[in-house]
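Input chain follows. Return structure tokens only.
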Amino acid sequence: MSKSELLQLDIATAGKGLRDGDFTAIELTEAYLDAVEASRELNIFITETPDRAMADAVAADKSIKAGTSSKMTGMPIGMKDLFCTQGIKTTAASNILGEFIPPYESTISARLKAAGTILLGKTNLDEFAMGSSNTTSAFGAAINPWELTEDKKPLTPGGSSGGSAAAVAAGAAIAATGTDTGGSIRQPAAFCGIVGMKPTYGRCSRWGVVAFASSLDQAGPFARTVRDAAIMLETMAGHDPKDSTSAAQATPNFEALIDGGVKGMRVGIPKEYRVEDMPEEIDSIWRRGIEMVTAAGAEVVEVSLPMTMSALPTYYIVAPAEASANLARYDGVRYGARVEGDDLNGMYSATRGQGFGKEVRRRIMIGTYVLSAGYYDAYYKKAQRVRTLISQDFDNAFHSVDALLTPTTPGAAFPIGEKEDDPISMYLNDVFTVPASLAGLPAISVPVGSNENGLPLGLQIIGRPFDEGSVFRLGQALEDAAQFDKRPRLTLEGFK
């Protein structure tokens, strides 16, 4: 196979090709390393790991030959630079971590490594995963491989996991890891025209993942197809005794579950997600999705989630509060960067002031404020009560439906810098994804069409806790009906 042909394979077909001896993991890895090099203008990777990739490929070929390989063996992936990787620099896209090289491996990256995946590098992200555009990274913005057809302005790949999404969309990784706190897997997946899955909170271990908001952060996969996402999640998921929030749940064969079809499923359409001034392109793609699942045999039912409009303000109290506590450890004393001052307080102030970017400082200040004496009850405690009501809304809806179908984002990818001076407008990018995060529910974004500029649009499926199987089944039905096969212009450029 040519390099171009190898780069177009998904996990399922590449795995078969490796096992059948059509090509080797070394050949597949060499093709992807060339693609990583060719896509550097997109600023997808913070740290590239070609030597590690080739060593992984050699080990993968031995495992395949010995008959001890897994579904993920030989798959070249990107790892969001929020997952600690032993012996490999981990930055969280922040200056404050400096040249931090972890002496340990996160549970997720360790599981993927043990399964025989090939690490291409650590992908770019918003600093400490705080952002919706991948523009807050200390290493510069990652660029979406999709382009506007007229003015060619560079587009955001979404955030915070923008580098991972862009890598998969551009053909520079067959799949990638991401983390989702309020939409940071699903929104970039929608902007980049790929599949992004946020599993149930607790399904994947958070151990060794640099923390943003501990009660919300959840790891998940980016992939080209629903099947690929299911395959990758099987490897990532599972109980971890090192993580107190990890759920003691058995990991199903997610790939097998997607073939069950959706006939007889009841799919809820939340009326509150038809927000004021919703763009016609989003309403249109949503209507099209409803027609698709109906044609596949599902029954569509309107449901109500009354607390939906309270989700975003609730999130932007809870998440910054947890961030302010988690980021207190970055003080210039134990590890990471240090900026000297006249005394200890001066060193703290200088280190954090220069080490953290503007968006991170903004969220730390908000979080510290809502946790401070006199404001804790008025803001944080009240937000936690509203969070409970949001979860109850979903519980009530799932008494009558098996899953929910909504838009993923309120629009397509926008030009880099367009919303930088308006943080409220930027935060609204997560209006459809935040509610499921607050409730800890599994949700997937599947590309189903394009807008008038040819940019991809995705739909979101939300499921019951630990019912990723139904989410994947409905996602597969959408994918089969949509037949979304468009690719960005920059994909495989130089390999034609």
